[in-house]
Structures are given as C-alpha cells and as structure tokens.
Amino acid sequence: MSQENIFLFFVIICFISHSSITDILFLIFFVGNILIKGANVRFEFMLPYQIKEAIAKNIPVVLPIGVLEYHGEHMAVGMDTLAVTKILDRLESQMEVVILPPFSYGAASYAVAAPEQSGTLHVDSAALAPLAEQLFTGLLRIGFRNIHGVIHHQTENFASGMPTDLAFKIGARQSIFKFLESTLGEAWWGSKDMNDYYSKHKEGTDPFNWIKLHPLMDNEIINNYIFDHAGEGETSLLMALAPEAVEMSRISENNTWYTKSAKNSSSEKGELVILQIIKSLINRLKK
Ligand SMILES: [Zn+2]
C-alpha cells in the first residue's frame, strides 16, 4: 500500500466511524476525484509508455498560453496565465487531457501600463513566432496530432488576432507545413494520395487541424459575461480561481478607468462563468 493509499484508508475510517451525510458526500467527491484524476497526466510527469498511450488514443494535448501584465493594484500580474492554468486544473478531472507546462511570456504590450514598477513583462511577437514554431514542431515530432493552445489575453479580438495569439497561430501553421514537407517531401499536397483533401478538410481531419488555438472564453461567453481588464469580470474570475492572487482591500489604491467596476466583484460571479468556460472548452477540445 502506498503512503497515499494508507492516508486515504485512515481518512475513510475516520469518516465512517462518525459520519454524517455531509461527510459521506464529501468522501464520495474526494475519492471520486482521485480516481478520475488518476487518468490524467501532466506532460512533465509522463513516462514514455504513457506518452505512447496518449498518442495512440489521440488525447488532446493542451498548451496554456498567457502573459504577465499589470492588472491594477489589487490583482496579480499573472492573471491571464492563471485564468487558463486554474481552469485546466479543474477541467482535467472531467476529461482525458495532457497538460503541458504553461507558457507565460506572451506579448503583454505596454498599452495598459509601462513596465517600470508595474510588473508588465512584454516579449515581442516577432520573437514568439519562431519559438512557437519550434515548440509545435517538437510536439509533432513526438507524435502528437491533437494539440491545442488556450489563451486569455486580448481575446475579444481573437478572430482578427492580436500579437500573442497571432504569433502562436503562425508558429502552428509554419510547423505543420515544414513538418509535412520534411516527412512527405515537396509537392505532398499535389500528390494523388491527397485526392480526399477537401472531404477531410470538411470533416476536420486534415493536417491543419493538428494544432488549434482557442480563446479561453468563446464568443458566446465573451458577449454574455462582463469581459474586461482587471475590472469586475476578471477580478471575479480570479477570486474564484485563485483567491490568493487578489487583495480586495487594495481596490481603493486604483485610479484607472478599467478597474472602476472591480468593487462589484465576487467569487460567485466567477464560479458561474467558470462552469460555462469548462463546458465550452471540453466541447472545443473534443472536436
Ligand atoms: Zn487580463
């Protein structure tokens, strides 16, 4: 019996010996969570046999993408990255998924605040695109064909694109083109084996679906939630996901327009949108 199992055994005995209905419900949730969680793996913890299994089962491999950016005096600079990683922490108990270590060094931009003393850490998209290409090429070389980047930064403009997501999109496309050329040779698309390309494209099974980029919140959520920067929407979301990264007592230290609504934040509002985000993300990752 492993140390974890011995601990679990004692917890169970303690609960059963003087158990109320709440204790039992908690126990079911706790054990259930451990059992389901056992099916999921963080990439850095995977052994080669698990990687082979994940490739064979075409399990979605998710890269959390974020930035480090000033979010008012009351919120942590990692908000945009934490929004993705903490949602994935919850999502992984609900579906089989491989989660890669997050990439936090996106193009935050200095549009909100200059970096001096604010904590905004900007890396130019021109530097990100080649890095993204290398990263995706590496994942394709390993054998993954179901790769997803999830980002929460400036995603109200996701359809047209903003520097960080565009860099990762171009990196994804470039890596797929180069990978296909290096494995199938030039003129791969024109060869007779590809005569079903358009039907595969319709089905979503052509190679350009190997890597997809997603905003954390889809359009419907963005249109129905309080989508903002460090205001009521983001503050509520972070209060629910990582309460240790919000200090509501510092809200009065803000004097910026975009933080004015933050005083109306609550973790309850955050919890509601988290449910919608997880539901939508599961659907998008399963496609
Ligand atoms: Zn943000």
Describe the fold and architecture.
The chain is of the alpha/beta class and 287 residues long. It is 48% helix and 7% strand. The chain has helices at residues 3-17, 21-37, 48-56, 79-91, 125-142, 163-184, 197-203, 219-224, 232-241, 267-286; strands at 41-42, 61-65, 98-99, 147-151, 211-215. The chain has a five-stranded parallel beta sheet with strand order 1-3-2-4-5. Mean pLDDT is 88; it is low at 1-7 and 32-39. Bound molecules: zinc ion (ZN). Zinc ion (ZN) binds at residues 71, 79-80, 229, 234. Zinc ion is lined by residues 71, 79-80, 229, 234.
Helix and strand topology:
Layout: H1 3-17, H2 21-37, E1 41-42, H3 48-56, E2 61-65, H4 79-91, E3 98-99, H5 125-142, E4 147-151, H6 163-184, H7 197-203, E5 211-215, H8 219-224, H9 232-241, H10 267-286
Parallel strand pairs: 1-3, 2-3, 2-4, 4-5
The structure holds zinc ion.
Features:
single chain, 287 residues, Rossmann fold, 2 domains, five-stranded parallel sheet, 10 helices, 5 strands, globular, disordered N terminus, binds zinc ion
Indicate the CATH topology of the largest domain.
Rossmann fold
Can you tell me the number of structural domains?
2
CATH class of the largest domain: Alpha Beta
Average pLDDT works out at: 88
- Report the C-alpha radius of gyration, rounded: 22 Å
CATH superfamily of the largest domain: Creatininase
Biggest β-sheet: strands ordered side by side in the sheet: 1-3-2-4-5
H-E string: HHEHEHEHEHHEHHH
Major sheet attributes: 5 strands, parallel
**Strand residues, percent:** 5-15%
Taken from the alpha-carbon principal axes, the silhouette is globular
Count, helices: 10
- Catalogue the ligands: zinc ion
Oligomeric grouping of the chains: single chain
**Beta strand count:** 5
How far apart lie the N and C ends?
39 Å
Please tell me the CATH architecture of the largest domain by its name. 3-Layer(aba) Sandwich
Uncertain segments are: 1-7, 32-39
